[in-house]
Amino acid sequence: MPLVTSKLMLEDARRGKYGVAAFNIENMEMVQTVLATAAELQAPVMIQTTPGTIKYAGVEMLAAMVRTAAKSCPVPVALHLDHGESFDLAVQTLRAGYTSIMIDGSKLPFAENIAVSRRVVEMSHAVGIPVEAELGKVGGKEDGLEVSDKSASFTDPAEAKEFVFKTGIDSLAVAIGTAHGFYKGEPKLDFERLAEIRKIVDIILVLHGASGVPDDMVRKAITLGVSKVNFATELRAALTRGVREALVDQSIIDPKKFMVSGKKAVQEIVKQKIILCGSANKAIA
Ligand code: 13P
Fold first, then answer.
1. Which of 103, 173, 231, 239 could, after both became Cys, cross-link 134 (CB 3.0–4.6 A)?
2. What domains are there in the chain, each with its CATH number?
3. Predicted pLDDT at 232
């Protein structure tokens, strides 16, 4: 089916108390694998790309690829800009056909984060596209964007309320202790803070940095009100592992051959994450 916006699928998830899994992709093989797995599990799904991936592959290429793959996919698919770093990139992705936008002004002072998020909301809402923004700073490294442990900071619930009111965003990425990339020890999530934010903010909540977060913690975050869960690092690592394993056989020189092994490894992760988020069989195709 044609790409859909993330608006309805996330509202359905909130009502149904499950999470939509949002997967970062780097190439065609990852798009094919995510969509085939979502179709097999009858799950609505989000595909997302960082500015780094857009720089690598080009926004038109990525949008055309995901749009084409979604056309023959029987479940709802939204194409989302992850960690959009500027108003300009938001415009470029919208023009290319993205159906969901994140503007990440979390590194800016509060008032500037509000201003840029508000500007992206006004522009995106004019063409019916929902917007996610971030308050507080999720730590770790995501495709070239790095937040040191020292400068990572949690979302303040009272500020979140003001931020949502002043920006008009559709969903809020919360910083409650997750980080992008793999964790050194067990992550410590501030569930009380999440519950407090859920109580006073009435829009969709998003959990970033879910690779390596134990399953019971992801489930708890969903129970407490998260409706979108982002996975990137585990997929990248799986693709690379699968390809490496295949390339041990020196006679393989055809990318179509070693990619099969990479895709299989990604498929296992995608399947597990969709089931974990509870979105299997939730597609209203
Ligand atoms: P991970 O790389 O930790 O899965 O985080 C993904 C993410 O939050 C993308 O925005």
1. 173
2. 6-277 (3.20.20.70)
3. 98
